[in-house]
Amino acid sequence: MSAPQATAAMWTCDRCGVSAGRMDGKRAALPENWATSAAGRFCLACRRERAGEEALESAASEPRDARVRRRRAAIVEFEVQRMPDHADNAIAKACGSSASVVAEARRRLGVAPPLPSTAKRRAMERGAASR
Q1: Per residue in 75-108, pLDDT tens?
Q2: Closest CA relative to residue 74, chosen from 50, 96, 94, 91
Q3: How far apart (Å, rounded) are the C-alpha atoms in residues 9 and 27?
């Protein structure tokens, strides 16, 4: 049996201080995109930033442009792992990146791209059948 889900009237990010809660003041579960770990409770924006910062820590002696690339790659990889069932372009938009960068991150991580929607699959199949 799983542990009961924690609830609170207000949740506060330990990094940036942003708060989230219900307007009526009733207790609610931790917001879906937030996470709690031994390091604290973090909103999605801070989770992304922490992923980038962790990559920078391991690249302290590298040139600035290499650190920037490593940070961007870490944020994209964080999002791919967080939302593996989302399309590459949706993840790219969330990261301020491109779909090709997301596709490369999927390959590095061994995460398969999501199947296209049923309508899109049918259109692709019709296109392949007419060739």
Answers
A1: 999 999 999 999 999 999 999 999 999 999 999 9
A2: 50
A3: 4
